[in-house]
Amino acid sequence: MAELKKSSIARRLYGRANGRSRVSMNRLKILVTVVNRAKADFYMDHIQSFGVNMQMLVFGHGTAPREIATAMGLADSERAVIFSVIGENNLRAALDSLGEKFNTIAGGKGIAYTIPMSSIIGKSIFNFLSDNRDAVRRNEA
After folding, report:
1. What are the helix (H) ranges across 1-141?
2. CATH number of 24-140: 3.20.20.140, 3.30.70.120, 3.20.20.30, 3.30.1070.10?
3. Which of 45, 62, 115, 141 is most exposed, with minimal Cβ within 10 Å?
């Protein structure tokens, strides 16, 4: 009984049990969002509100022939592709919110999908990308 009490105290104080670090179950994904170039800053700010610490923006052009793009109502072919690292626990809310924005903002149409991240090297990098600010501060001290 004393050993059980001792391990639960260590877990609460240090986040460890039996000397091992506690592993976060918040898996990370890469959220890819393709939007009109003029709306890129708006969407980057919006996505950041879901605990995203790292984003990359790439500009591109659509490849559909002009006739098809015009028929689909896509007069402007300049696009922005936003790559964001997001925790799985915030992903559903972010995708739902993006879907709502795609349907309600004038000229704000886009697509969003995710790619799983299979590994990350380094506990500090994982904590930063997971938006785990307390763990990052502890590692810096």
Report:
1. 2-14, 40-48, 66-71, 88-104, 123-129, 133-140
2. 3.30.70.120
3. 141
